[in-house]
Amino acid sequence: MSGRLQGRRAIVTGAGSGIGAAVAERLRKDGAQVFTADVQGEVDFTADLTGPDANADLVKAAADAMGGLDTVVPCAGISAFHPLEGHDDAYFLRVLEVNLVAVFRLVREATPHLKAHGAGRIVTIGSTTSTYGDEGLSAYSASKHAVLGFTKSVAAELGPFGVTATCVQPGAIATPMTAPAFEQMPEYKTFWENKAPLRRLGTPEDIADVVAFLCSEDARFVSGHGLWVDGGVMARH
Ligand code: NAD
């Protein structure tokens, strides 16, 4: 298995924490060069990726550092529960900006590199809430539905250039994003553990392993696809 991403040059955002950090580590383990970005943590490029030029600057820095770019995995994201009543515009728009608009900008800026490569890879991170909705998740679920739709359209547009675009849809994963909710509400953690046929929360590595597969030559004919990686939760939805 080791070395299957040899020669690939990838950007991973959100790599300062959780799923993004695990993805960066896994891609490196498989032989890829990885250029990491986040607003915090130990990464190659530190920036708030909602800045209008941040993604163009990131793509340029990554391509310069690695001598090219053929793989993009935007993992940066935010989430919080907000009931609809009293849900202010600013937070709703912020969720769309981080989870959707920054992904759009990164993919747009990377597109010339991915087309030139001839076998480019885009793996976005949606959520099982790219497929269903839930109370208090109107902004998050809207952004994650949108990122899945965006990914499908990118797959259609860039497929003729040998580029695949797929969307990994994690279920409940134990990361710093979910830790406060699981710590404050142990019953919420138990709920998700029991809801999964595999009877546990996911780990960042559960997601990273699937991302690595989708970046590899083995996944060359998989595109426009949203893939639940959720311990089977969606089978019961
Ligand atoms: P996390 O909070 O551990 O990591 C997210 C990272 O994104 C953080 O390091 C954060 O600094 C970075 N980030 C946020 N806003 C940014 C910005 N404006 N600019 C640059 N970096 C920014 O969370 P995670 O659980 O690892 O989440 C990673 C991705 O997986 C997110 O897109 C999230 O929506 C998705 N996801 C997570 C779960 C879960 O259960 N943890 C489930 C489904 C989907």
TrEMBL record:
Classification via InterPro entries: NAD(P)-bd_dom_sf, Sc_DH/Rdtase_CS, SDR_fam
Keywords of this entry: Oxidoreductase
Protein source organism: Novosphingobium album (ex Hu et al. 2023)
SUPFAM superfamilies named among the record's database cross-references: NAD(P)-binding Rossmann-fold domains
CDD domains (UniProt xref): SDR_c
UniProt xrefs under Pfam families: adh_short_C2
Protein name: SDR family oxidoreductase
Keyword Iron-sulfur: no
Tagged with keyword Oxidoreductase: yes
Family membership noted in the UniProt record: Belongs to the short-chain dehydrogenases/reductases (SDR) family.
